Amino acid sequence: MVEFRIDRRSGVATYLQIVQQTRQALRLGLLEPGDKLPTAREVVEATAINPNTVLKAYRELEREGLVEARRGLGTFVRKSLGSAPADSPLRGELDAWAASARAAGMERDDVAALFTAVLEEHFTQSEHVSEGDSA
Q1: Which helix (H) or strand (E) holds 99?
Q2: pLDDT tens-place string over residues 85-111
Q3: Bigger pLDDT: 115 or 68?
Q4: CB of 78 within 8 A of CB of 32?
Q5: Taking Cα atoms as reference points, which of 96, 86, 18, 10 lies closest to residue 50?
Q6: Which of 42, 44, 36, 26 is nearest to 74 (CA)?
Q7: Of the chain's two ends, which shows fewer C-beta atoms within 10 Å, N or C?
């Protein structure tokens, strides 16, 4: 079962943190179709947030078709996202890279900015190549 971690200093709305963490768990294969999400009460007890915030996040996930609420039973995963299992060899390489970055004195935000810049280079570039091929 997924455990939500709320960062009150992140500037990201609490319900969006729950939505993002659920999407990430789906992408990594940590949550699969049929899995049950924690109840609103369980999330409230673990994170000390308002129950309506949890329900808002779950409604957003339901609107996206990722989960479904079953009256009296809970909220269940309907479909997965992506194909990057948590035990992928690439995860190990990324873990080693992050450890190197930290050892080199980089701050979390610096690492995130660098990683995002590299992602943009590679994925935006490949999208332009694809578009050029179809012309």
Answers
A1: helix 89-103
A2: 666 788 788 889 999 999 999 998 888
A3: 68
A4: no
A5: 18
A6: 36
A7: C
DSSP secondary structure of 59-98: HHHHHTTSEEEETTTEEEE-----S--TT-HHHHHHHHHH
Query: Is the confidence at residue 26, as pLDDT, over 90?
Result: yes
Strands 67-70, 74-77: pairing kind = antiparallel
pLDDT at residue 72, rounded to an integer: 92
Contacts of 75 (CB under 8 A, 6+ apart): 36, 37, 39, 58, 61, 62, 67, 68, 69
Token pair belonging to 42: 């369980």
What is the pTM (predicted TM-score) of this model? 0.69
